[in-house]
Amino acid sequence: MKTYRIAAIGGDGIGPEVVEAGLEVLDALAARDGSFTLEVERLPWGSGFYRATGRMMPEDGLERLRTFDAISFGAVGDPLIPDHVSLWGLRLRICQGLDQYANVRPARLLPGIASPVRTGALDCVIVRENSEGEYAGQGGRSHRGLPAEVGTEVAVFTRHGVERIMRFAFDLARGRPRRHLHVVTKSNAQRHGMVLWDEVAREVAAGFPEVAWRFELVDAMSTRFVLNPASIDVVVATNLHADILSDLAAAVAGSLGIAPTANLDPERRGPSMFEPIHGSAFDLVGRGIANPIATFWSGALMLQHLGEAGAAAALIAAIERVTAAGVVTPDLGGRATTAEVTRAVIDAVRGANR
Ligand code: IPM
Ligand code: MG
Fold it and tell me: Which of 73, 226, 238, 259 makes the best surface tag, with the fewest CB within 10 Å?
């Protein structure tokens, strides 16, 4: 029997609600499978921790996380703490500190869910560069408060960083039936970092002759997501571009409430982190109607990363059965609560609905 050690960081807003729902579902999968168990440790980090200690996570937080096999993360963000403080103190600190450089965001129209656009079909994976680019944290402020005040936000692209994300994306595309990759760029306007990005993409592409690929400018890519989403398979984009495109993809797939993320260290030097992309959603806190599906789907990505492909597939099948049956939360036009969706997915996992 294998045991996986999972760090659960519910964080802020609806994060704890959906993470707990996700852990219930993962337990049901472990029980069904019989070949692995999950040993969960809950870490009370986030904005509450910040109010009590002045830090979003303990000083040795990263060291502690390194001892786990995976991290289940909820959300970070609090109306009373500046977003850049809470974010850089926890989520980005973990992603950058553990060098989880590949952020993977599948978007698919699930059975029973209507897209707000006349799509036909959507089944894609966005690969977001997760360690540098526009969110590298470089820049500064000077002449504060004076008319001459200046703020810079420097986008950083390194050959090392671009090469590894391109390899990851081409490799992912090669493993999918359509073997297609859009390399998103903006090298027409940004003539340094983005031109390096393009050059490295071409070099890496040479090693993947099986993958059909093309460049797409980010603005054109956004129209493609609305007008012809069926033409999209795998997408690789910078930190900022993929941040925006992945919200667009989630909206086209019906709701931000179903969109999952994996923050992967493909080299497995440390744990990877799995989270819904919806954020803390304070308007929903405590109402019991947060959509847990994004967290469940993130749990499937976690199981896949841990090597439990059978359990991951069973979870995806259970989610599809529940959305097809219309047991969904209000963001998807339904009336089910978080607990009801969770129960339905657990029943589907156990085969009760078969
Ligand atoms: C996301 C989120 C975060 C990000 C925010 C909260 C900074 O939008 O996961 O896409 O861009 O990293
Ligand atoms: Mg985002």
Answer: 226
Q: How many whole angstroms separate alpha carbon 201 and alpha carbon 213?
A: 10
Identity of the residue numbered 301: L
| Residue 145 backbone dihedrals phi, psi, to 5 degrees | 80, -10
Q: Is-above-0.90 flag for pTM?
A: yes
Closest ligand 1 atom, CA of 277?
A: 9
Which of 216, 24, 237 lies closest to 135 in space, CA to CA?
237
Angle at 114 between CA 109 and CA 120, to 5 degrees: 60
CA 243 to ligand 2 center in whole angstroms? 4
Residue 41 pLDDT exceeds 90: yes
Kindly state the helix (H) or strand (E) to which residue 306 belongs, with its residue range: helix 293-306
pLDDT, residue 214, reads 98
What one-character-per-residue DSSP string does 201-225 give? Answer: HHHHHTT-TT-EEEEEEHHHHHHHH
Nearest protein CA to atom 2 of ligand 1, as residue:
277
Q: Which of 353, 278, 201 is nearest to 22 (CA)?
A: 278
Tell me if 277 CB under 6 Å of ligand 1. yes
Alpha helix positions (H), 113-272? 159-174, 193-205, 218-227, 239-252
CB atoms within 10 A of CB 92: 17
List the residue whose alpha carbon is closest to atom 4 of ligand 1.
243
Q: Is the predicted pLDDT of residue 71 greater than 60, yes or no?
A: yes
Q: Give how far Cα 142 sits from Cα of 84, 137, 150, 151, Å.
A: 18, 16, 6, 7
Q: Which residues have a Cβ under 8 Å from the Cβ of 34 and sit 6 or more positions away?
A: none
Residue 225's pLDDT is 96
Would residue 135 show up in a list of annotated catalytic residues for this protein? Answer: yes
78-127 confidence digits (pLDDT tens): 999 999 999 999 999 999 999 999 999 999 999 999 999 887 789 999 99
87 ligand 1 Cβ < 6 A:
yes
Q: Measured between alpha carbons, how far is 246 from 248 in angstroms, rounded to an integer?
A: 5
